[in-house]
Amino acid sequence: xxxxxxxxxxxxxxxxxxxxxxxxxxxxxxxxxxxxxxxxxxxxxxxxxxxxxxxxxxxxxxxxxxxxxxxxxxxxxxxxxxxxxxxxxxxxxxxxxxxxxxxxxxxxxxxxxxxxxxxxxxxxxxxxxxxxx
Length: 133
Description:
Blueprint: E1 17-22, E2 41-48, H1 53-70, E3 74-82, E4 85-92, H2 95-112, E5 116-124
Antiparallel strand pairs: 1-3, 2-4, 2-5, 3-4
Helix pairs in contact: 1-2
């Protein structure tokens, strides 16, 4: 695999369903200076799959979600389905946290699903704009 881009500029997913799983904000073990937009580390993986979407989603909620939420530095996790693609987006307190989760998730995906990595992006966020609450 070649050099991984530092961030994704734009993603177009047509008729996508989107499910967000995450916390109201960074977990308490994330230092305050890491909660600023540019201090977060992003992991985005685009997979293809050939199994039933609903079965895959249930399997992932049961197997992949505990890996993500149980990894230190976890901030947020979202999954989007679009035709034969799955997009996994997660935010982490650091590169080390993201890489720890990435390794465990890739192993889980290979052992439990038909998903194949099509593209993978990991890097510091250049910025993240949030709506005020």
